[in-house]
Amino acid sequence: MTTLFVSDLHLDAGEPAAGAQFVEFLRERAAGAEALYILGDLFETWVGDDDDEPYRQGICQALAGLARRGVACYVMHGNRDFLLQSGFERRTGARLIADPLIIDLYGEAALLTHGDALCTADRPYQRLRAVVRDPHWQRRFLRLPLRLRRGLAEQARRGSQRHTQRTASPIMDADEAAVRTAMRACGVRTLIHGHTHRPAVHALELEGARARRIVLGAWHDQGSCLSWDAAGFRLEELPRTAATAAPSGSAAAGPRP
Ligand code: MN
Questions:
Q1: Does this model's pTM top 0.85?
Q2: Are 83 and 146 in contact (CB under 8 A)?
Q3: Dist. CA 193 → ligand 1 center (Å)
């Protein structure tokens, strides 16, 4: 049996190629897996479970199809879709999981996290994160009319893009000390995260033992997936097929954690 991990799909009606590839991924690849973990930023924005926007509804239906096949699907909040709640779970059959979370991967303890909390050098972002992850702030936001929430989310998205463009690249990456602290505190030798859009397998030494940090890639230009079974793991690039290739001119999206 295989467990699959993806993150940072940033699905949005304005960038349909990623969603088309993901729906195909759910039907083909994930259907044969034991479990699928989506480690944050499945959606580019999520303004509340009451949002009836057809594109997001379609993605939710595709996830429900996976659940009907008996594949366990776990979804972690990212910095874009942290307002996913129980209505999303009911609609999709997926289960929301805590960030961070330790799981047993065929005998290997792995620490899962979206990754934004590891970017500790980005102080303005960490201050924003503390505000929007506060349950009181979230309850107040979710009481606003849907149209207003959509507008505010669009503003936040543009603000985040400006911040990403202005901020130096190393500051946007996971902080080495934060990575070590988290892994040591959890007693794990394997960390899996997304968010930075820098897919890689980093080897590190932790208290004299070999450890690794596996970073999942974003789905803007192609898919990215980590597959894990009893024999080991593979971090894969998933090129777009002809059926799901981006229409020309839509590739300007670039990485936007
Ligand atoms: Mn992110």
A1: yes
A2: no
A3: 10
